[in-house]
Amino acid sequence: MRQSVCGDQQRRNMFAAFECQSQCPFSLQSSMSKRTRCDDGCFDDRPHPVKRHRSETEENVAVAELRADACGRLALFLDRLCQKYCGLLTAPNGMLGRWICCQQMFSKSSYSDPVLRVMHLQTAHESFVRELCHEGIAPESAQRVHAFFVAAVQREASRLHATKRVLSSGTCPRRVQCTRAAWGCPNDACLQLYLSPRPSSLHHHRTVRINEWHLEKLRRLYGLHTLNSGVWTGEANALFLQRVWAMLMRYRLFGDAGCQAALPERCFEMLRASLGVTHECYASPLNCYMPTYCSAYADTDKFFGSLGSFLDFAPLEGSFQCNPPFVEPVVAAMVDHIVELCAQADEANKALSFVVVLPRWYKSPAHCSISSSKFTRAQLTLPPGTHVYKHGYQHQVPHGYRTFGKHTTVFFVQTQAASLRWPVSISHLHKFAECFRSPVLALA
Length: 444
Description:
With about 450 residues, the chain is an alpha+beta fold. It folds into 3 domains: about 1-45 and about 255-435, Rossmann fold, CATH 3.40.50; about 60-165; about 170-250, no CATH class. It has 13 helices and 14 strands. About 40% of the residues lie in helices and about 15% in strands. It is globular and about 55 Å long. The chain starts with a helix and ends in a 9-residue tail after the last helix. Strands 1, 7, 8, 9, 10, 11 and 14 form a 7-stranded mixed beta sheet that branches.
């Protein structure tokens, strides 16, 4: 009962934040006009630093189906490559998702597909090879697997692009149905969304699940950012479910549960009250706490408040929170972007602040860079087993907290003006560490 009461209060706090923070609480180095009309016809009253590229037009449901099939084939092909060249039964768990995560977190305006892209980044290549080497595979074999896998991704991307050209644009005539499904314990209501007609057992991967209160959260975000009339007609609800289904299908392919883990709600409440944090730089419609955030996929997430990729986000002042996927190339790109933004804001005497949550990777260049930066005002290290994260699949699992078995380091990065406006004291560090503990019994 105590867990339920605590969770209900945190949800009320989140929904209250959605309602009161409807305007952009920070300034940007470059923005669009005050009131612009998006490609989908909805109005956006907030300044956007993200240019809406052609690749960010609304996801077509039929394309999402085909992409899911393509990623299924890629997963099987990666397993076969690891069997043939590495002697493994299967590829390391979640490897395909982490590769997708690594590729898409970079600026992507020139790429036609938001998921199946190949960016020839040395850091991404090294990360893939290093993961196989950690399994005891020789570097030559790991590089061979990477080369064959990249070629397969390029073939699937070309096939998908050719199919897109013949698909009709606009809303797919197939509707998304929502039914109630049994899930976990009786107190956890779970819903399943699928395209009509109901998919067969061979296409069960086209059915997605979400618990009831997360669907309500998405409905509120959608009403705040997209539903102009404020009236939920039958047509508006059908379009809402279609966009929810497309977004859930997209994040099913993204990384693993660890890549989508979030801070406990109490951390966000503390950061908002004490350090003025109003925006998340790495989130999704499923795990966000703030009503505005940056996320991996602007084309599916913009209807729920996303401002696009953080690497295309250029705030001049404001207070932000960064909890990126713990994938080394992603972390490295984020740190470089934060340091560059702080340098520009400090030169303009603007108050720009970031609370950055990272694993303790002492030997990582990114960790060394942010540790030694002149803008890092304070650091907090949390020992293993003393703190928790919200589960990466919190929109599905009945219990949302998981104890983290490694060190976490929190960096407070601020310009000079921000350090005066939001000073970080010892009491703030102690309070934040306490908020990182679960309000209920965490599951290891």
